[in-house]
Amino acid sequence: AAAASPARVSTVVRAQAVKEPAATATKRIFNFSAGPACLPMDVLEEAKEDLINYKGTGMSVMEMSHRGKDFMKIAAEAEADLRTLVGIPDNYKVLFLQGGASTLFSAIPMNLAPEGGVADFIVTGAWGVKACQEAAKYMDARVAATSKESKFTTVPDVKDWKLTPGAKFVHICSNETIGGVEFKDVPDTGDVPLVADMSSNYLSKPIDVKKYGVIYGGVQKNIGPSGMVIVIVREDLIGKGGAPCP
Description:
alpha/beta; two-stranded antiparallel ribbon
């Protein structure tokens, strides 16, 4: 799931003989491009049934009330499963939000630094560049380290980072898909919250959640279909949004 450059990887591989249940046996196309990842056949089969009649309710899962008990159960089970799988501590909240991870490029500074201030960005590729540029609309977004000179093929040595004392947060993109660069270790930022865009390696390996203030990422790589972002945020960082926040 992580650190593969699209220039070197064929984007579509056609399966010649995929063993599947007789009712669904077909030639499947496995998508390894930058878009949605492959979903297990049993998941697709269950989703197909629930699309018509969710668990005998007589309604499609797309027709039921988002405040109804059936949907509330879906949401609760999804969060519980994620907490168990990742090992999310009780002092962290889980947010399932519409849109992609790029929406958090502005949401994070607006919520973690509503009155401005400084945030440090470790820029190791195109997504780090975009996150820093968007944050600069709301605060003093500083590039504390970058691998631009190596054409984003490395991660800057931590000892060379120029971090700002008292910064609101330090931002990294844990895996840059375009350059194929991944952080192998979690940097220690002390008392300054570490914010990580994990869109491309979310759930591809264990996550030590307590080392982060905020983890966010689109779900399309390893979790589910595109169109949603999951945020894991430490409780003490919540509730600071200012007037500009929707």
